[in-house]
Amino acid sequence: MYTKNGESYFIVDAHIHAWDATPANQANRYGEGFINCFYDYHRNLSPADRVWTLEEFQKQSEERIIKDLFEEGYVDKAIFQPTYLTDFYVNGFNTTEQNGVLAEKHPDKFIANGSWDPRDGENGLTKLAELAERWQLQGVKLYTAEWKGASKGWKLSDPWAYRYFEKCQELGIRNIHVHKGPTIYPLNRDAFDVADVDDAATAFPDLNFIVEHVGLPRLEDFCWIATQEPNVYGGLAVAMPFIHTRPRYFAQIVGELLYWIGEDRITFASDYAIWTPQWLIERFVDFQIPEDLTEYAPLTTEVKKKILGLNAAKLYDIDVPADLRLPESTDGAVGAEPVPVA
Amino acid sequence: MTTATGMTSLEDRVRAALGTVRDPELDESITDLDFVASVTVGDVGDVGSGATVGGGGEVVVELRLPTYFCAPNFAYLMVADAHDAVSAVAGVGPVTIRLLDHFASDEINAGVAGGRGFSGSFPGLADDELHELRVTFQRKAHQACQERVASRVVRSGRPLEDLAGLTLGDAAPGPELDRLRRRRADLGLPADDAAPLLLGPDGTPVTAPDLVTQLRLAKTTRISIEGNAGLCRGLLGVRYGLGRETG
């Protein structure tokens, strides 16, 4: 919870990791390149006094994660989004099991999401059922640019992906976090294109599709499909830190999102450990659309409360203390109701 | 680099040619984006990566990108376009374009040098060349340029609802209009003064009922491209120690 000027905000950090990118776990030059790329994002978009050394960035201890998120970071509930990258890292970069250890130790603090890959076929479906049972999965994170042997990626519209979405419905997994990356099959197509999210969201209206990084670098494609699909959400991971380096651009992103998809389908995330939530939350609560950007309405406290936690709390059925909910909500007690399905 | 006067002008021409190559996704030239790491022309000596360049107008260009994992299709287009642009410069001999520090540097460099095309450079991983991808991004760039010109027209006092009936001749002359005409030419769309001010993504004139949505989507597209370009500049800056970007 974060309190400022008499207003208290319930905080859900909807996209975090506990990764191991230490040299000992790097399987090849791709593993090294991947964490260095993340580190450049961190160095480029963090305030100078928040920049870590590469060594600090490669792996965080349990104590550090707890401190960064909950002691200093105001977070009430954090959602682990695994990214396996087993072709790049010996034991994987950030698996459900790695995250699950922490989630099990601190059940009041974390939610552990799982993952699947349609290229794993029948065996993967069985594994998904086991994973769902073991970790009580409510959500999965899908990374379409994941390499697997000769393959450099996949699409949500692949026939096997639909088998997995059906399995998710059967297992009660309702939140599908989608992260696009730079590669895909076939490589000549635009890997960041979110058209396949449109297909899947139409075919599975009972599932929620949270497009991470609000579709960036294809904000326009994301907004266009999210406007038409009520079960498509935008996750602010990676977009958040622009609040420091490029606040006008951040204002434009938020302004466009509010115009196209509205205040109920945008969720806050730090993308920890790329960034830490403390400064992002403090700045966001203080943030206002610059006055000369007259096409956007000012951000209200209510909108900020929804983005910082209440929207994600709804998706994950997180119980929000009564005093942190919005008064006179038109759709019931925000944060305590089950997910409304479109 | 070389000191001979004649050779320097060849280098200038090579750099000018590289300035015509655009990052298709960011719609900016690779020289403005600082993607050109080095240009070596017809001299003997060490090139960045240890190769040697002989006389006879031989040119070696080294390119760098913001991340190790930048999308390989766009990277390939820039390397191939740079090869074509430099090869077309009068007086240039053999041309080598070398993409540095990228996960697919070897495949891209060898593929462009050998004229293998994109699918030939990534056997089994692509089902076509990159024409469709290029056109998709030329269309996005066109929409973004058009929105800049249209916003200026609206700011000058024309009511928004008039825009569907206007032509390029009604817009104020300037670099934004010139750029829009060039993007139209890329796509084979009408770019003269009598051409409609607003064309939809499919090239047909925007009609009044669609005007607000089309312009709004074009604006989101412009914000996305501009924001992405800013991010890429910042990442390139920290990756190569070019000074911290705070744009």
TrEMBL record, chain A:
Domain of life: Bacteria
InterPro entries per UniProt: Amidohydro-rel (IPR006680), Metal_Hydrolase (IPR032466)
PANTHER family cross-referenced by the UniProt entry: BLR3681 PROTEIN (PTHR42889:SF1)
Residue stretches making up the Amidohydrolase-related domain: 12-318
Name of the protein in question: Amidohydrolase
SUPFAM superfamilies named in the record: Metallo-dependent hydrolases
TrEMBL record, chain B:
Domain of life where this protein originates: Bacteria
UniProt-listed Pfam families: FeS_assembly_P
Domain MIP18 family-like: 11-96
InterPro entries, per database record: FSCA_dom_sf (IPR034904), MIP18-like (IPR002744)
Name under which the protein is recorded: Iron-sulfur cluster assembly protein
Source species: Nocardioides jiangsuensis
Lineage, opening ranks: Bacteria, Bacillati, Actinomycetota, Actinomycetes, Propionibacteriales
